[in-house]
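User: Show me a protein chain along with its predicted structure.
Assistant: Here is one chain, sequence first, then structure tokens.
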Amino acid sequence: RVFVVSDLHTDYPENMEWVRRLAVRAGPPGAGEGFDALVVAGDVAETRDNFARTMEALRARFDAVFYVPGNHDLWLRREGGRYVDSMEKLTALLDACSELGVDTGPRTIGDLGIIPLFSWYHKSFDKEKDVNSVRVPSLEMACKDFHACQWPLDLGSDDEALALYFDKLNDKNNDAIEEVKKKSKQILTFSHFVPRQELCPEKRMLYYPNLPKVIGSDYLERRLRAIHDNAKDGAACHVFGHTHFCWDSVVDGIRYVQAPLAYPRERKRRINGGQGWLPFCVYRDGFNPEIYPAIWSDYYNKNRREPENTQLAPWVAKYFSKYYGPPVFAKQTESS
């Protein structure tokens, strides 16, 4: 069996307790009733110490654990100057994974190939019309990454360069990926960031309409498509995280799944579903054919996406009226 989860955020005590409540496996790998693996699609913890504690706990509960880094994992604000920049912290996290026996590279388990994909977001990923009827805080104000991460000078001011850098980290695994493709009947790729904009609600539905500018990567979608290029129907799955929206849908022959633990306050408000089904079992001697219920993917599985429609959803309009005043109906610009 292969279970998937993202956005554990175990800096929250409630989330760390959720991890510790998972059953500890009995004996060495495979000693129980089969082999259980867990895929963790990023955002484990903000500090390296909490990260290591979390991954150690997961290794005690699963026969194999796979991981790819998320943005919160690379934050430096609580590390006390421990790292020069976020790249140095990335190296430290990957070293910790190696010490703990956590997989960060491709591997075949039975008939299933599991391939982690490094990625980062870039603003040009967003191709849909902006909402200009409300005053929206800037990306720098809304997204803590711009302050909590630090990058080398040649990458810090260009998000496409950063996204390309992370994508190229996957090149070192090209030979291993090809080997996994040869051995596997089915393949699961996974990333932290979003590979397609259709996997996020339209801007008019979002409390922060500019969210699509800081969630995804075109490089990521191209790379995973190349890996799944000859997959038969039902044999290709990609798991992602980051937005905290539960998701399960099939787009152009690939199944896309997001199963986030997310923040305690989000679970209490039932924003993204419940936690009773987590971690989600996506594979049991074959991909689970059942599409699991998730509010947003259920909606888009039944309704056509309308990116040209920028009229705010009622709940978003109410939110902006409460906190920012009535809509301003700003003049549309050529880039809108």
